[in-house]
Specification:
By secondary structure, the chain is of the alpha/beta class. The chain has one domain: TIM Barrel. 39% of the residues lie in helices and 14% in strands. A hairpin with a 2-residue loop joins strand 5 and strand 6. The longest helix is centred in the middle third of the chain and has 19 residues. The site of zinc ion has 5 residues, from loops.
């Protein structure tokens, strides 16, 4: 709504808002909003804690896999089974390079420093990871998640060369957006690290009220990573989503991004 002009007469504005809300609800599978659960970095707890929790609630999520992760190599059949049960195996790059020239990036090793990459290398490693993921799940459509949320190499947005390889790309900036507002090249997501169930449920309720997309970005769930959410808080979130499944569309990112893409193609003049 933020792009509506001040001088539009109130009646017209209300009509526009009403029809907009209606079409936005259609894009969310005729529900109030969409919630996407994403889990980064291909860690053991994804398979030990998260997949079983999602499966028992009959909810599906997106797992952003680092192709070089030992957990991909060791547990490949389990990732394949997760994909067969409807979870998305998303692309989180082959080596997870992050920009070591930014402040607070002491953890970035010279080998994994995105600022030392060429754009061509970044693009070809990400494409190679797509080949690996396709060999695991047999799929040709998926989404990408920026390692460390880094979009650029030397001022160049490398995803521009990957637009045809993905339906969309998830970022790391928190925000709730309507289908018209979403930037499919950098989809907002709320990073969760130690927040309570109340905090997460509050976000879901806000998404329901505003008919927007809410993306959660998890790493550890019940441990397994320095960034973590308690098992109990995660369980409470899943329970709420399950209890409100009539009103909330919970789906992997690739399915939601496909819907948003189609919506934006149908409504090309919608201000963003
Ligand atoms: Zn990551």
């Amino acid at each position: 709504m933020r792009a509506l002009h001040f001088l539009v007469p109130t009646a017209l504005l209300l009509t526009t808002a009403a029809s907009h809300a209606q079409s936005t609800q259609t894009v969310w599978n005729n529900k109030q909003c969409a919630v996407v659960l994403t889990y980064d970095d291909a860690i053991d707890v994804d398979l030990d804690n998260v997949v079983p929790a999602l499966d028992s609630a009959k909810l599906r999520g997106t797992f952003y896999l680092i192709g070089s992760s030992s957990v991909v190599a060791r547990r490949l059949p389990e990732w394949r089974r997760a994909a067969q049960r409807g979870h998305e195996l998303g692309n989180h790059a082959l080596m997870h390079p992050c920009d070591g020239s930014l402040p607070g990036r002491g953890f970035v090793t010279p080998d994994n420093d995105l600022s030392k990459y060429t754009v061509t290398r970044a693009v070809s490693e990400i494409k190679a990871n797509n080949t690996l993921l396709a060999a695991i799940d047999g799929k040709t459509t998926r989404t990408f998640a920026y390692p460390c949320g880094d979009l650029q190499i030397g001022g160049v947005r490398f995803y521009d060369q990957l637009r045809n390889d993905f339906v969309g790309a998830r970022g790391v900036t928190g925000g709730l957006q309507t289908a018209a507002q979403i930037d499919l090249t950098n989809i907002d997501a709320y990073s969760i690290n130690g927040q309570s169930a109340e905090y997460m449920l509050d976000l879901v309720k806000k998404a329901q009220e505003s008919h927007t997309l809410l993306v959660f970005l998890f790493h550890g769930v019940g441990g397994g990573h320095a960034l973590n959410v308690e098992l109990k808080a995660h369980r409470q979130l899943l329970r709420y989503l399950k209890a409100h499944e009539k009103d909330i569309w919970v789906a992997p990112m690739v399915e939601v991004a496909e819907k948003v893409k189609a919506y934006q193609q149908r409504n090309p003049t919608t201000p963003r």
